[in-house]
């Protein structure tokens, strides 16, 4: 958990963005970004790709929020769980689409 309650609340309300980096026809999500800039100057900029976390949080333009080891671990686990959930959704969609294509192939062969 993040010690700063305002940052904790913001973190949990930000909608993540997922990306796929790599080669191949079917690329699964392996990156997550959480970014928010508030009117009062708070900036939350979190990015994780292939299990490497980059995190910057600013309380205002001159005051960076320094994360403790526990806060970094919390953010890592949080982002990783979101990424795993998105990956599972992606895999389920991929499998359903593959089954549908297989059914169509069987239909056309008959």
Characterization of this structure:
The protein has one domain (5-109). Helices cover 45% and strands 25% of the residues. The chain has helices at 5-13, 69-109, and strands at residues 17-19, 31-37, 43-49, 52-60, 63-64. A hairpin with a 2-residue loop joins strand 4 (52-60) and strand 5 (63-64). The mean pLDDT is 87.
Question: Helices and strands in order, then pairings?
Answer:
Layout: H1 5-13, E1 17-19, E2 31-37, E3 43-49, E4 52-60, E5 63-64, H2 69-109
Antiparallel strand pairs: 1-2, 2-3, 3-4, 4-5
User: What is the average per-residue confidence, as pLDDT, rounded to a whole number?
Assistant: 87
Strand percent estimate: 25-35%
Judged by helices, strands and strand pairing, the structural class is alpha+beta
Percentage of residues assigned to helices: 40-55%
Note the main sheet: 5 strands, antiparallel
Oligomer: single chain
Task: Tell me the number of structural domains.
Answer: 1
Could you give a short description of this structure?
This protein is α+β, with helices and mostly antiparallel strands. Helix content is 45%, strand content 25%.
